[in-house]
Amino acid sequence: MRLIMGKPEKGKPYHIYVEETEKRIGAFREFDPARLRGESAGEGPLSGLPLAVQENIAVRGFRQGCGSRMLEGFVSPVTATAVRRLQDRGAVVAGTTKMEEFGLLRLFPDGVSGKEGGPERENPPGGACSPRDDGHPVGGAASAVAAGMAAVALASDGEGEVRRDAAACGVYGLRPSWGVVSRRGLASVSPSLETVGVVAGTAARVREVFRIIRGRDDGDPCSRDHPADAGPGGRRIGTYRISIEPSGEEAWRAALDSLGRRGFSVREAPPPMMEHWVPVYQALAAAETASSLARFDGVRFGRRSGGAEDPESLVRRARGEGFGIEVKLRILLGTHILRPPWRELFHDRAVSQRAAIRRAFDEYFGEVDMVLLPVSPPSAPGDRDGDDHLPGWRNKDRFNLAAALAGLPALSFPVTTGGGRPVGLQLMGPPFGEERLFEAAEALAEDFPPASPPGLGRDWR
Amino acid sequence: MFRPRIGLEIHIRLLTSSKVFCPCPVRYGDEPNSLVCPVCLGYPGSLPVLNGEALRMACLLAHALNCSIAPDLRFDRKHYFYPDMPKNYQITQVSAPLGRDGSLELETGGGKTVSIRQLHLEEDAGKMIHRGNRTLLDYNRAGSPLVEIVTAPELETGEEAELLLRSLRRIVRYLGVCDGNMEEGSMRCDANVSMSPRGVEHSPGAEAPSGDPPGRKVEIKNLNSSRFVRLALDYETSRQREILRRGGRVAGETRLWNEAAGVTEAMRDKGESSDYRNVPETDLPPFPLDPEYLEGVKRQLVELPSPRKRRLVRDYGLSGDAADFLTEEKDVADFFERAAALGADPRTAASWLRSEVRRILNRENLSLGESPLTEKRLVELLGLVREGGIGGGIARKTLEEVFRTGRDPAEIVRERGWEPITRRDALLPVVEKILAAHPKAARELREGKDRALDFLTGMALKETAGRADPGLVKALISDVLKEGRG
Amino acid sequence: MDVSELMVLAGLAGIEPAAEEREKLAETLGRMLERLSDMADSGLSGGFRGGEAPGGERRTPAEELSGEASAAPAAGRLRADTAVLFADPDALLKNAPEREGRFIVIPNIL
Q1: Domain locations in chain A as residue ranges
Q2: Staple partner for A148: which of A167, A370, A453, B33, CB 3.0–4.6 Å?
Q3: What are the tens digits of pLDDT across the range B372-382?
Q4: Domain B424-482 has CATH 1.10.10.10
C-alpha cells in the first residue's frame, strides 16, 4: 500500500498527481482509491498497485455506466471476477474509466441532431496519448495507464478497442484467447466475440496480470483453465504486404527487422479469408448486440424517461433516449438480420463462415507461429478507406476482427521510429498462445523500449 | 361430424432448492424481491450457471415419459419484451429439446396413451400484480426451473385432458420432481383446440390443418385446475362445433377461460409477434448427456403409478378402485406393500387404509409418514381383529388411540381392558341377563325370527362394551334357548 | 429502407427513436443492408451460390455457435443445488427507478 497510502519516496502523493493529470486527460469516470481499499488483500505480487477498470466491468459500489446514458445512476452490487482476482493479489481499484458507449466507435462525432446518446463527447485527451488520427477519443483505460495514473487497466476488447487504445497511447494491450479470462461482471455487448483485456506499460506487466486473472471461474461456464504448455517457443512470424501510410509502414519494417535480428523468422503468409472478416463480424456482432442489450429497458435499473403510460412505451422511450445512435444502429441491424429471410441469408451463413475462418486459422498456425498485423492503421494517401460512416465497416479495423472471430489472442505493442510518435502493431497467435506473444513483444522492447509514463509511474516496480 | 384435436402445453415447476441459473432460493411467501440476485434480475455482466439438480429432475421425468433424450443439453434465447422477463429474453430450449417422442398413459379403463411431442427445461418469469394504473413487479419467481411438456393433439375430450393431468400429477409426485399443485401454480396448463373432420385420419403428431377451414387452432389459457381444464375444453369444443355446424370459420386466436361465466373469451389482441428471433445461448456451453450420466439418472426411476396399480391388482388380488386409491400417493402404496410383507391380509389392509386410516389422517391433517401409525402397528391391529377376536368397534377405538398416544395396539387393548371376552363361563351370565331383559326378543327368536338374534347380540356387545366375541354370543344364545332356559 | 419500415423494426427492437434520428437511421441501415447484400452476393459474408462453405462438413448454425466461440470450448458445467441468498439485496432495490415498498413499479394500461 505504500504507493497510495504512504508518503511517496519522491514526487507528489498519488491522488494529487491524478487530480492534476486528470485536468488534462479526463480518463476516469469515478476516481476513488479509498472506496475499495478494504477489499484488497494488502499483500501479494501486486501489492499497492492502482488498477483502473473500464466502466463496463463491474466493480462493487461503482457506477457501471458502460459509457451510456441508459445506465445513468446504475451502481454495481458485485465485482467482476477478473477484478477480484487482482484485488486478491494486492491491487487496489483506483477507479473506473471512461469509454465509448458500450465500446462502439461513434460515427457521428457531432451527433445527429445535437441530442447526444452518450454522457459526453470529449475531445481527444492530450498529453499522454497522441490524439487518434481518426479523431476518435481514446478510452480512459489506456489513457490512465499511459499517463501514469494506473499501473494496469482492465478493459473489454470486442472489435479491437483494447489494442487500438493501447496502440494510440504507446502502451501494451492484450486481448486474451476467448474463454480463458472469466467474463463474469463484463457487460458484454457481443458475448462470443468479446473478452476482458489487459493494458499495461510493459509486456512483463501484462503477462503478470494475465497469469493472475486467467483460468476457470465457476461463475462463468464458458471459462476454462489455460492449458499449461501451449505457446512458448514459436518463432515463425507471418506477415504480408499491405498499403498503409508512411509512418505506419516505417514502423512495420522496423519491427520486422528487429524480430529478424532477434532470432525470429519472418515470412510472407497472408492470414486466411481476410475479405470475409468485416461482413461476418458485422452480422454476428449485430445479432449478439441486439440480444445482449435487450435487458436495458429502464424497468429494474437504469434510466427511465417520465410520462410513459404503459409498459411498452416506457421501454421504448427509455431505450430510445438512453442509447446513442451507433448503439441503436447496431441493435436495429441485429434485430433485422435475425428475422426471416435475412436470418438465413446473413446471420446463419455468417455463423458457418465463422467456423470456416476458425478452421482456416487452425491450418494457418501450422505454418506460422504468430502473425504480425497493424492495429487500425490509416491507409496510404490515395487509397480508398471504405469508411463510409457505417459502424464497424471501417476497413482499417479489419485487422482486429480475426481475433474476435476465431477466439485468438492478440497483443498490441508500441513501436517508435524516428518520427517520434509510437505506432501500434499487433501480434496474433493461435488459441492459448499468449506466452509466445509476450516473448516476441519483450524481444521487440529491446529495440523499442516503451516510454515510461511520467510522474508516479516511474516509481512503480 | 367433427372430431376435436386437443393438445396440452404443461409447465411444471421443479422442486429444487435453488433457481435454474443462479443460487437464489426457490421459496414462496417471502417478501417481494428478496430472493433475487444480479443473474435473475438480468443485470449487465451476469451469467447463468446451470443447476445440476434441475437437470437431473428433467432427465428423470423425460425417462419416466419414455422420451428419447438429446445427446447434449443446449439452450436458446427466446426474445420478447415483457416486464416479467428480466433479460427480455427467456433462456429455454428451442432447437434441441431435452426429450422428444415420449408417451403418457391415461389412467382410464381404456388405457389410452398420448404422445409427448417434446419436453424441455427453461426458466420461469417473475410475477406481475396489477393495481389500478400501475403494475407491481416481484422477481422472486423469475429464474425458477420449469419443465415444459407438449403433448401431441391426440386428446378428444375435456375428460381425457383431466385424466392426463391427473396421471402426470401422480408421476411427478412419485418422482419427487414437483408437487403437482395446479391451484398453487406448481403445474400450469394451456390447451390447443381445433376440430378436424371425421374420417380424415391424421398421423399421430401431425399438425391440425391450419389456415384452411374448418380447423384453426385456438389456444386456451388461464386453466388453474384440472377441473377447469375439463370444463373449458368441453365448452370450447362445443363452441367450435357450433360455429362449424353453422358453416362458419373458427378464428385462430388465444382465449381465456372465464370461470365465473363458464365460457372462454377472446383475449385482447396484444399484437404479439411470434417471431422470437431465437439464437443459441452462447453463455452456456452444451452439456453432454452421455450414456453414463443418463443411466445413473435412469436408475433413480421408481415404479410409476400405472404399472404399480396393475401390479397391485395382479399380485395382491385388489380391486381396481382399491389399487387406484393406494397408488394415488407413492408413500401410501409403499406403506401398503410393506404392511403386506409383514403379514397383513392385503384386502383388509387396503380397506382399512382407505376408510378409517384416511379419515383420521384427513381430520388430523397428517400424512402417513408423519403419523404414529407404522406398518407394524397396522399389522398388529389387523392381527388382533383376525385372531384375537376383537370386534370392529374396539378396533376402530384402538386405532384412534394409536394416533392419540403413539402406542402399540396390543398394549392399548390390554391397558384399556378391551380384550375380547371369549370364555363361555364369562359370557353365559351376560347372555342370560340379556335374554331376561328382553323377553319379547327372546320370544321372537324362539319363533324363528333371526333378526332378533342380531338385536340380542348387539345388546350383549353393548353390555360388554364391545368386548364380547359376537360369534360366541350367538352360539350361547342359541344354546340357552335350546335348553329352554330363556 | 424507408422510415415506416424502420419504425416497424424499431418496434420489434423495443426502441422509439427520436423524430430527428429516424431519417438518418433508415438511411444508414439501408446502406448497411445493401453492403451486406453485395457481400453476400459475392460470397463474402457466407452467401454462397451453390456449393459448400469452405472447410467442408455442414453443421447447423446452432451447433456452430453454441459454446464454440472458443477454439476448445469448456464442457458444460453444473452447479450444486444449494440455495444462497444474495449478500446485498438492498443494493439491488436501490437501482430500481421506481418502487412501492419492495415492489418495482411500472405503469399499467387500464
Answers
A1: 14-229+449-459, 236-434
A2: A453
A3: 999 999 999 99
A4: no
